[in-house]
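Input chain follows. Return structure tokens only.
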Amino acid sequence: MAEYILKALVKAKGLEELFYVESAAVSTEEIGNPIYPPAKRCLTQHGVWFDPGKRARQVTPSDYDRFDRIIGIAASAQEAKTFKTGKAYDLPKKLRKALNK
């Protein structure tokens, strides 16, 4: 759901050409599942487009190299180690937690 909300916000600002947004899970329990039905209803109610064929995937070490910024929604610092990139020095620059106070 967060992927499509962020895409909608980027589109509303006319910045689609500057951003590539994709989501991935740090855990394994939802891998391969479609978008959660209540999340689909919420997106639909708010007029937010989503890909009905979207399936959950797990984050991979190559994602670390593919993306300039990684925003964790529910990921803990421990889960961030999923990347296992050997680039721990760079993790604080690239990984951000959403709604961090």
